[in-house]
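Request:
Um, any thoughts?
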Amino acid sequence: MQNSGSQTPRIRHRKRSSEGFQEASKANGSHLLVHDQNKYRSMLIRTYSTVWMIGGFALVIYMGHLYIAAMIVVIQIFMAKELFNLLRRSHEDRQLPGFRMLNWHFFFTAMLFVYGRILSQQLVNTVTTDMVLYKLVSKLVKYHMIACYALYIAGFVWFIVTLKKKMYKYQFSQYAWTHMILIVVFTQSAFTVANIFEGIFWFLLPATLIVINDIAAYIFGFFFGRTPLIKLSPKKTWEGFIGASFTTMISAFLLASIMGRFQWLTCPRKDLSTGWLQCDPDPFFRPEYYTLPRWFSQLFPWKEVAIMPVQWHALCLGLFASIIAPFGGFFASGFKRAFKIKDFGDSIPGHGGITDRMDCQMVMAVFAYIYHQSFVVAMNLSVETILGQV
């Protein structure tokens, strides 16, 4: 009787602490994966979708630069669709026939402008052998900007003409929302496509590091997660964040060495053809040999080690992917909470929508391009530039 009586307060205390934890979890909107009763089922679905995504992604990478750019376009369309639907109201849309088409008009106008600016030189280089086609493409490139501006002005006039009494607030909010989506989506895409044609390496490595960081954070949080990281993403834990950071840094160093050996990944593409690439390796992809300390060579059979200079740059990319890029996911989580939705869509089982998978990628793509242009690309001075300085 004494034992049962002494155990009763402990049992009550455990129940109260458990109930308090559940209440705190509900207040945050969710609970840690380690306490999720359905975590194994959700992990199975998530793993199945991940395998299919990685397999499809690898196939597109093998097909080459042009197909990767096409994949980016498809991803953009899905992202725009999910974001357009976020503030869409069917009741108002029924009173504004054709208004939804206006959003897509601005979308494809922005797409024509962005990709025309990025790929104009590659397009010209592709048609240099045909003089008639070359002249036609040159004219299109020359008048590309005015054509895009005319399309935008046509959309602007279309919007003004279709303004309807008592619907002004909804229409102007949709107009502003559309332009915000274009800025978010096409800023990311512009840098991503630019990275692709600088060499698939500069697109593939940053994108892979984000995937590795996401998977590692999920696994470490799944098995060891105890300490919540941020209220915006209640299932994120410090254990997952730290474990994923170390995994991402190690992966960046090793993957850079592996990817840097393939010319298909390191050579820049100067046109829009799909043929095999061959080029002289950039100095960043030529291994440099470092002599190991004497004590190390006494313990192990290696006397020197070969490291590519790009591997040191990969560590910077890995550091950004593990520490800063996750804040893109936190931003998306806060955004979803503001609109009281769980996911942006349901395109990918276990993952949500395309936008849910691209939140960190958008941040990473911009950084990868800026880092590449700032610290990797050599400064090319033309004769005109030098004479101008003189």
Observations:
- The longest strand covers residues 233-237.
- Confidence is low (pLDDT under 50) at residues 1-30.
- The first helix runs from residue 2 to 28.
